[in-house]
Structure prediction request, 559 residues.
Amino acid sequence: MSTEPVVAEAGRDFIRDIVQADLDAGRYKEIVTRFPPEPNGYLHIGHAKSIALNFGIAQEFGGHCNLRFDDTNPTKEEQEYIDSIQADVHWLGFDWGKNVFYASDYFERLYEWAEGLIRGSLAYVDDQSQEEIRATRGTLTEPGKNSPFRDRSVEENLDLFRRMRAGEFPNGARVLRAKIDMASGNINLRDPVLYRILHAHHPRTGNKWCIYPSYDYAHGQSDAIEGVTHSICTLEFEDHRPLYDWLIEKLPVPSRPRQYEFARLNLTYTLLSKRVLTQLVRDGHVAGWDDPRMPTMAGLKRRGVPPAAIREFVKRIGVAKANSVVDVGMLEFCIREELNRTAQRRMAVLRPLKVVIENYPEGQVEELEAVNHPDDPSAGTRKIAFGRELYIERDDFMENPPKKFFRLSPGTEVRLRYAYFIKCREAIKNAAGEVVEVRCTYDPATRGGNAPDGRKVKATMHWVPAAQSRVAEVRVYNQLFANPSPSAANFAADLNPESLEVLRDARVEPSIVEGSSNEPMQFERQGYFVRDRAFTPERPVFNRTIGLRDTFAKEVGKG
RNA sequence: UGGGGCGUCGCCAAGUGGUAAGGCAGUGGAUUUUGAUUCCACCAUGCGGAGGUUCGAAUCCUCCCGCCCCAGCCA
Prediction:
């Protein structure tokens, strides 16, 4: 066992620097962090940044990270979300062990501490209405006014607070407020609400409570109870820190956690607000929280994005305090990088065009060998049937090709991957003038894909045998939003009408639909695909995770 | 015009007084039975601006400019 100080191998950032300095100074014997979602929605890739930060720091510095549900508002929270959050954190690759907690576990202690605040004349029950409180809070530039109930006696406050808890008053009738400073420049210090009356059923505590602590009151104290050393949250809580510290100082808490803030993740072509995501689902713009176009963990998972790619992504973007918008291309790079390394290759034709090899014997079938991964021989090989009739990609044939088009066109010769060189003789068209079949000849000497005479072809194309291939549905996804910086206020206007394209008569090699593996695959020259959860051998359905980099398309786009 | 933050390459982001890391994107080129991958090269005399201190400043000081957050009994 080494006694060397633990040094993070991952990218350094200002928070890890603080943790390291705290360790070096001997301020803590163990680093404790926490990931504290409110169970009021599904986790998204922005949460992944926070999860990786909190769990990552705990791992790197030999501490632990708690999963804590910040369930202080029963009107918004549901068990469904508690369950999905746990599943998603696990899927991302992090484990809280036994350390799963709920703010609601601490309601009794929080309540007792609140009475303590009252006894110390640091909190009071305010009878003002919500409107009155708002009206007397002041503005950004003007101080607020003290509540007429601010100087109630301790006895009266205690009595009222207990009756609040006992359920004597309706929602909104009274609140418990901290007595701080109505003239503070920091609005969070203008007598913030600590408890409100909410006659609502809580997913964990049921109907036991009808008063609930506010975030500000519950969060820091929960941290302290759990022995959290570094309470990491996003930038918008910066001005809550003085209140966080005030409560920690005034209350008899068992430890003194400190809050640090970092910038939340923003992505181009993406909206991550819970409000928007919820509305996207509710209004039917997507098929659900796990629609593969959603930036939710569930969506990314169903889309086929490997958790390792997300971890790599959040590692690469770093942690800082500057508001920023990360190019979604960065995420896509990480997905391709991971999938290129791990996904086995297969052949599938998304938009089939029939090819008949005129000089190939009618009825003959032979088996060709294909490698499963070009850079990983241990992935092995497989056999693919080859016959007189095949399918190739529609895009791979052009009757009147522009310059720089290397694929098949009348008179040109190309290679069918793992098979033969073929040469196009003629294109057969239907009445509408569309090419429906391509007649070719093959060179038997090029079996396996090489010409004994050393002649070269400029293109190698994927293909699938007509008789042995299977029909499949392939869902091709593009950005959900067409605008690189979609409007959160009016997101519907920025939706990409072409975010989903369903190809119902794709043709895939049999190995793709056989077996029970749900591993991602690369359909050669197309991209990476996974079986959708709706997949059955009888009705195979695939999702395209992401396309391959396509410099040819880019070239064409330029022209 | 109150309080709290932030401004380094198209996008992230190191840098903490010693002469601008890295990644993504982009651009050239090599290899290639995926127009993929891989590899190699190029890509900030400049760090929001203006002054100042210093032998030396992205880093220190002054002033200015811009952007973000806060007036929920949401988190």
